[in-house]
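Sat 14:20. Reprocessing the chain from the morning session after the first attempt stalled halfway. Input below, unchanged.
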Amino acid sequence: MILLVEDSPLYYSRYLPLLYQTVLEQTKRIIDDVSTDDLYKVLKLRARPKILLATSYEEAIEIYNKYKDNIFCLITDVKYRKDGEMNEDAGFELVKHIRSEKKDIPVIIQSSNQDSEKEAYKLKSIFINKNSENLVQEFKSFIMHYLGFGNFIYRDRHGRKLVEVKSLKEFEKHLRTIPDESILYHAKKDHFSLWLMARGEIQAAKILHPKKASDFKEPESIREYLINIIQKFRDEQNQGKVVPFEKTAILDEANIVTLSEGAMGGKGRGLAFINSLIYNFDFSNYVQGINIKAPRTSFIGTDEFEYFFDRNNLHYVKTEELPYEQIKKLFLKGQLTPTLISRLKSLLKMIKKPLAIRSSGLFEDSLMQPFAGIFETYLLPNNHPDPNVRLQQVMDAIKLVYASVYSDIARGYIKAVNYKIEEEKMAVVIQEVVGNRYEDVFYPHISGVAQSYNYYPFAHQKPEEGFAVAAVGLGKHVVEGEKAYRFSPKYPTTAIISIKDQVQNSQVQFYAVNLKNQDPDLLEGDTAGLCKLDVYDAEKHGSLKHCASVYDINNNTISPGIDKPGPRVINFANVLKYKYAPMAETIEVVLDIVKEALGSPVEIEFAIDLNKDNNYKSSFYLLQIKPMIGHAQDYNVDMKKFKKEDIVLYAEKGMGNGLIKNIQDVIYIDTATFDKSQTEAMAKEIEKLNKQMGKDGKQYVLIGPGRWGTRDRWIGIPVDWPQISNAKIIVETSLEGYPLDASSGSHFFHNVTSANVGYFSVQPEKSGSYITYEKLDEQELIEKTKFFRHVRFKKAIKVRMDGKKRISVITLK
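Finished this time. Tokens:
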């Protein structure tokens, strides 16, 4: 802050615009030097030096006492009011008072009386004559040279210029090489802290200011001290931010490093938010005993995606519907920019753990249409002995992520939500994989997904308390809807399903990065760098001991730990019940904070390393956040108003809200021909039926057994979203010998919610839910396939969904 004491409107109306102009010019220079995010630039603008005006001695003292730590310059007239009267020496008295506390503060004494000059010099202050023809120039000269505004000029002991620096980075660079005499010259005059204060780097200036040159034995000690302070300050400044590429920034978990310019895409924005949250919010106030982190992350902005098309003449791919396999091969032949290749080389020299190369499209994980799981992610072992091979693998993975924009699944989804494929641009996120090495594989103890809104609450649970699904190994197992453990973070000790179902639905396999396969063929798909192992392999590795329990067949009980013989049940009892690590509490707190920040229900992906650090803490890694769409509004369903003979379907576990009254078609499984070993064939049949419905411009109710969208064909029909994209209502039901566990937690399920599709779970053996197949069989048969029947009602059926009570009913009237 600059304190200006002047009672004449004529003069302060000249000084204030001059001071404002100089301060803003300085701030503009600083902002040009700031290369982090736009928010930080705005904060820099707000942190610019402020100008405070006083018109009397008392007012000046009041301002000084209030802001003394931040005032770094005094500009004062000589004659103004003190104790209610005009005082000829008020200015001199003010300087003496302030200098008694701040010896080195720069002072301008300005007066129209030339005789005041002698007294000003006695007080070691600059004197400016108000009547001078060069008043403005003299004023400006003082500000630039004595207040640290403008560039910093390193000088020798005689004051001769050595080198001029514009930015903090240049300042630090030359600080390492300038002669000792220059350091002493500036240190004695407090130039370093003055320049930092003028730049708005108040924290660093405050640390430096109390130190005197005499506090150090030799100039080299001053140099080291200054470098340490500036480095520490820069590190703190960059924490939780997206920073430009620098080799030193790569290894810092607190930074997201930009490998090329452009938009970050949806996933990138989510990760930037995660990073900012983790390093600027103190989670330890809410949950103890665990480190909350994000893995080392770099991102490639969308500019590289556009350069890739320009450099390799690939724009025709956007409009010509070429086969996806052909597109992948075309993209692999393309070249990335030399700048990106050089930066990737630097990255790979420093990071030796497996890497995840993840898509981050502009539409992906956005608030209105999250494209969850539509684009590809590749996991690379990153352990080939030849660094050039490792570089090629990363470059190939980046190109294949670009190609995934034009996959059949992506094209189908983009069409289904009425977007244009030409509008999509792809950024790429490169992340270190969380986990540990076990023999020839690499994986985390726990991975999972959690949502802040639970569409399938159990017993006393409430929808807004959320839920989590966790598994041993990589998170691919969970997001693709395979067998995993579901629990409420609020009530982690409450088992949601019976002991029999827990054993039946327990995880039996898991994904890991395959370190043995040092050169995976990425054209095989996103599992090329992975392998699928049995949970007993995890037990051999020693990673299962806190994650599993044992089922006692004789007593029909499940005991925590794996010290007894018997089938292993993955239920994380040691973690959830006996608090080996506060997983449930951490998920609950993170969901709550992220939900508040985004202003909508959210989904997070996480991984946990149960190994304890020196402070006896495990580590919880936040991998991704995305908004959930379609949580409950008010629509009331009163079942008393419906006649039993009019009800086609009733579901006590329903998701969705409102009334739909324009559907006549129902496609449902033919229970007589259902064969659980033929679910892949069923997926192909439903794709053809769905395509025909799209051509006819009709939506329909889809009814099928087990989980829709799972990757485990034994527990449901393994469809992708575009294969059923015209269904307005999707029903999961259990059949005899074919139990049902709800789909929440899969990428597929997330897309269903964002498309505002009604989603019902019908389990007659566990609830009052039912489907009257007789009524369906009575309707006009439009088409019969091997496994499905497509029927049409004469009049549109009514679908009513109560989002609060979570009940849904389909009726004839």
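The mean pLDDT is 84.
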